[in-house]
Amino acid sequence: MCHFCNTFNNSKTNLVIQSIMKKLGILLFFLLIGLQINAQEKKWTLQECVAHALANNISVKQSELELDLAAIDKSDAFGNFLPNLNASASNSWNTGLTQNITTGVLETQTSRNSSYGVSAGVTLFNGLRNQRQLQRVKLSKLAAQYNLDKMQDDIALFVANSYLQVLLNKENLAVVKSQNEVTQAQIERTNQLVEAGTLPKGDLLEIKATSASEVQQIAIAENAVKISLISLAQLLLVKDYDTFDIANDDYDIIDDGYVSKDVSEIIESAQKNRQEVKIAENNVALAQKDLQIARSSFYPSLSGFFNYNTRESGSSRFVQGIDPNNPTYTEEIGVVQGTNQSVIGTFPNTIIEELNPLPFQEQLYNNDGISYGVSLSVPIFNGFSARNNVKRSKVNIKRSEFQLEQAKLDLESNVYQAYVDANGALKAYEAALVALESQELAYQYAKDRYDVGLTNAFDLSQSKLRYDNTQIEVNRSKYDYIFKIKVLELYFGIPAEELKF
């Protein structure tokens, strides 16, 4: 009986465990499905794409590194004003015939000697080179910032163009699909009329051919959407091409009046705000600063120095002292004139004693010494290098001035081109809208005539094809106009992150 109870309890426990595991499995399954759905539902907005590109684009990162290097160069230039301080230490063993540093006598010995020193120096005057270098690195840092700003504007505009291209392809795909749905409805209705003997079978075949052509266009449009999405993902450095998608927002045309402005006003604003001109102007300032640095080579340089040195040795020391056994000795030092009597003198009897080296710290204290002073260097002749550097700097100034002039001309030409493109895109968009309205009426008229048997399927399909193409042209001209407005706004000086879409 007990054995039966145990068996029953074990079976019941196993059923409970199996039930729990089953529920956990179901929960985990739905959790994974939910995560997958959330990942697939991720839709990138234009603002997210631009922000992601600016944070991850390799070209932007390289420009940021140039800015970091400019900051390091500035620190170097500031350090030129500070004194330099260096310490040195050496310890050596000498074996053989060497000079005893205590007595100065050459001896065959093994000795250990060490020396220590501290030196400091400061530049007092070097033709204002340090000041010019500091001014130059500040200009270099400013140039790096201009290059970074230009790179960010270019990347933002490039991303916006790619994003709008995806939207255009999606809208074109929607147009083709929508029109194919209409064609499918016409096939069904025409088939009924053919079976009733109202329309010839050729009309049905014509509409089916139109449907087949539209199906082909749908495949082409879907491929265009996929390719444009992959291109945008690659630009953003996003690796998951399969799930990458953008938000299907309907971007309206936002024109704050820049297209209607006078082109001279836009050119004037561009020359004040665009990085192309700022970079060229900064290059002129850099070339002028290089000329000042080159001229500093003609001036003398004055520097101050301070040195502290000491030494220590492990060799025995020799000390002159009084002989304790015979402290004095006498000897004749002369005679008395006239009597020739000897004059005897008593002198201390000294001997040389070999003793152990003094303690380390005591030797350093006894053997130290300092030196200080100023050093003046006057350039007299250096193989024309200083003079040629000045000439070279003058040539670079001329070159940078020509580049500045060319940058202004290029910017003016680009603004004119952007202005003409924006106005042309506006006219093309307005014309496309008028054409769409006309083609819609023409298609509806052809459809009504076809419904009452006054026209054939071929004429209807041609009218429908023109209507479809006009819708696609409206989409193309719309996004082309939006993009060219933004180009014009950038030239006017609107930052890329403040562009309105």
TrEMBL record:
Assigned GO CC terms: cell outer membrane; efflux pump complex
Record carries keyword Protein biosynthesis: no
Location within or outside the cell: Cell outer membrane
Keyword check for Transport: yes
Pfam family, one: OEP
Main subcellular localisation: membrane
GO molecular function, one term: porin activity
Keywords: Cell outer membrane, Membrane, Transmembrane, Transmembrane beta strand, Transport
InterPro entries: OMP_efflux, TolC-like
Residue ranges crossing the lipid bilayer per the database entry: none
Family: Belongs to the outer membrane factor (OMF) (TC 1.B.17) family.
Record-given protein name: Outer membrane protein
Source organism of the structure: Ulvibacter litoralis
